[in-house]
Specification:
SH3 type barrels, Alpha-Beta Plaits, 5-stranded antiparallel β-sheet, 20% strand
């Protein structure tokens, strides 16, 4: 046991043991606080931020303990770090850029946990923002519409300096969407438009007040025009049918289900007109055809 006595008699042993004891105590306190606080919080967003805050506080306390315990040794260490600093910075430039990106995300409010974004060509919901990477639950890919694909994508935070960041929910939690409805020529214009306007307003009208309020805040924060958020139906005549465009605002999380409900309502209302209003389909008009010759059993030829 001579080596044990030698280690314990070393001048730094007492500091190391004290630091380890303090770190262990801080970890126990943080764990107790985490269990006590998180058990009383039901909101997932608050739980996430509370967990992040406790983890960050624990790291800060550990750093403070180490700095206080070995403060008289830091001068020599600083000289060595200065020598190798340039090489480390070059080798870890992507890491440093990602850390800088994390700072930019925090203070410039590029996005937050829960936002729907598109980063580096990846569209999805932000489920975690780490020191180096942002974790996204992917939308789309081989799945149509705004549905989860099941893949979790981790994107370096440095992307905020290299590519545009598309945020679907930061200051305005609605998006404009549009569907096109073909109506057969011969359907009465006034009744066709009234049918579509009624279906549109009764399906998405509940979102207008919220969208108008949020857009009002947008005009106060940014130099932007006062856009129309009320449902709108416009008409365009094509070669085959009358094409109505239905434009509306919808919460970014309800785009898919709203489109489904709107199409279902329109088809049901059209069927309720008993054929007075009909949906259009591709049609072809034959304007000319070559002469048709028919030969009967006796060999006689007739033309038509």
């Amino acid at each position: 046991m001579t080596w044990v006595r030698g280690v314990l008699s070393h001048p730094a042993s007492g500091r190391i043991i004290s630091a380890l004891l303090l770190i262990g105590l801080a970890w126990l306190i943080a764990r107790a606080l985490r269990g006590m606080l998180l058990s009383k919080v039901s909101d997932t967003g608050v739980r996430y931020r509370t967990r992040k805050l406790l983890n960050g506080g624990l790291v800060a306390v550990i750093g403070l303990i180490l700095a206080t315990t070995f403060s008289d040794k830091l001068g020599g260490i600083a000289v060595s770090l200065g020598v190798i600093g340039a090489g480390v910075a070059f080798a870890l430039q992507e890491v440093i850029a990602s850390i800088a990106g994390r700072v930019a995300i925090l203070f410039a409010r590029f996005y937050d946990v829960g936002d729907r974004v598109q980063l580096g060509g990846i569209k999805g919901d932000v489920i975690d923002i780490g020191l180096l990477r942002t974790t996204v639950m992917e939308l789309g890919a081989w799945v149509d519409g705004d549905n989860y694909s099941g893949r979790i994508v981790r994107i370096a935070n440095s992307f905020v300096f290299k590519e545009p960041v598309f945020n679907y929910s930061a200051d305005f939690s609605f998006v404009w969407d549009e569907i096109k409805v073909p109506v057969r020529y011969g359907s009465p214009l006034a009744e066709s438009k009234r049918l579509l306007e009624t279906a549109l307003v009764e399906t998405v009208g509940e979102y207008v007040a919220g969208a108008r309020g949020e857009w009002g805040h947008m005009t106060q924060s940014y130099r932007i025009e006062n856009a129309r958020v009320d449902p709108l139906v416009t008409l365009q005549a094509t070669d085959n049918w009358l094409e109505y465009s239905l434009r509306y605002v919808v919460p970014f999380t309800k785009r898919r289900v709203t489109k489904d409900a709107l199409f279902e309502r329109i088809v049901r209302d059209v069927e309720g007109t008993s054929g007075k209003v009909q949906l259009g389909s591709a049609t072809y008009e034959l304007v000319a055809a070559p002469p048709l010759r028919v030969v009967n059993e006796r060999g006689e030829t007739s033309a038509s």
